[in-house]
Design goal:
three-stranded antiparallel beta sheet; globular; 7 helices; mainly alpha; single chain; hpI Integrase, Chain A
Length: 153
């Protein structure tokens, strides 16, 4: 899930609602059908690194059941933003910080959140030379101006 947040830029609600049928690794895309905005319904390009990560997800590739959630809770229910933050992200950040401390390196910055990982995705696209319109579509925004205003800072 963390890899998908970083390398696909999905919102918490989008990653929580993601169905197995919407992840097509052979075509290199993730379809976002449930989003908070009309522009948010989109197709996200799957990078080679994300494809590699998702291929290791049990039952995802090849797809076991197309209607199943990709990142369900233990009970098979969708994850919400609080569940993603508390049960997934915060333990990962804590573990990463322990590993960094053992290596004598500084911890991750305070405030790591799913939305900050979305910012990371936008920064990766810009660093790779993607144009603002392409970044806008990948993030599910309605205008490139909004994308630049939001993620250029």
């Amino acid at each position: 899930m963390i890899g998908t947040l970083i390398f696909a830029g999905l919102r918490s609600g989008e990653v929580g609602a993601l169905l197995r049928r919407d992840v097509d690794l052979s075509a290199g895309r993730i379809l976002i059908r449930q989003s908070k905005t009309a522009a948010g319904s989109r197709e996200v390009t799957v990078s080679p690194i994300l494809s590699s990560l998702l291929k290791r997800k049990p039952g995802l590739y090849p797809c076991r059941s197309p209607q199943e959630l990709v990142f369900a809770t233990r009970t098979g229910r969708p994850r919400d933003k609080d569940n993603i933050r508390g049960r997934i992200l915060l333990p990962v950040v804590a573990r990463a910080n322990k590993l960094l401390e053992r290596e004598g390196r500084p911890p991750l910055p305070l405030g790591v959140s799913p939305h900050k990982l979305r910012h990371t995705f936008a920064s990766i696209l810009v660093a790779c030379g993607e144009d603002p319109v392409s970044v806008m579509y990948q993030l599910g925004h309605a205008s490139p101006e909004f994308t630049l205003r939001t993620y250029a800072t």
